[in-house]
Amino acid sequence: AQKITQTQPGMFVQEKEAVTLDCTYDTSDPSYGLFWYKQPSSGEMIFLIYQGSYDQQNATEGRYSLNFQKARKSANLVISASQLGDSAMYFCAMREATRGGATNKLIFGTGTLLAVQP
Amino acid sequence: SQTIHQWPATLVQPVGSPLSLECTVEGTSNPNLYWYRQAAGRGLQLLFYSVGIGQISSEVPQNLSASRPQDRQFILSSKKLLLSDSGFYLCAWSKRELSYEQYFGPGTRLTVT
Q1: pLDDT for the residue numbered A90
Q2: Which of B59, B102, B107 sits opposite A104 (nearest CB)?
Q3: A1 touching B (Cβ < 8 Å)
Q4: Which of B29, B36, B78, B96 is least surrounded, with the fewest CB atoms within 10 Å of its CB?
């Protein structure tokens, strides 16, 4: 069965420093997608970054980058130059492999609560 | 551009009462639609997904049901709420074809008392 594991329930980081949020996954399918979402206290889920299993390079989106290590089945999120507005819950997710159609179902980890300190 | 709406934003209901949460999507057609529940301090659990009108797949056995009466409308219902139904309910949509992301609504915070 496919599974996403986030082992850090909470993290602290000083403003302007970089922080890495861990994510490991388990799947036997060769084709999959990995996502990171941010959930502020308001509750909305904000898409941050996507990595496909066949992508040769690590995904980057502004201050966000995904450290994709396929052999280790890890997809850590790196946030550079942390800002106070980065304080939120962060979820790693994996798109389930599809058979016969693109259901695009996502499996989520339990999340990491990031607190950025001034 | 596409937008997704959910209402109500918050709801307090007694145990045993019925429930109806609504989700609508604008600016796209033939979307896949999803209902998730997030318990306090927990991750998201997929409850239902739909790939078309009247087509509902249930992910976990529970006290809830879902319906899709129109292409861009997704409804989450219950005939009798349980205390364990409390949580944050999120609706999401994605493109029908293999897609990079799901787009989430603002959510409904349900408290069953």
Answers
A1: 97
A2: B102
A3: no
A4: B29
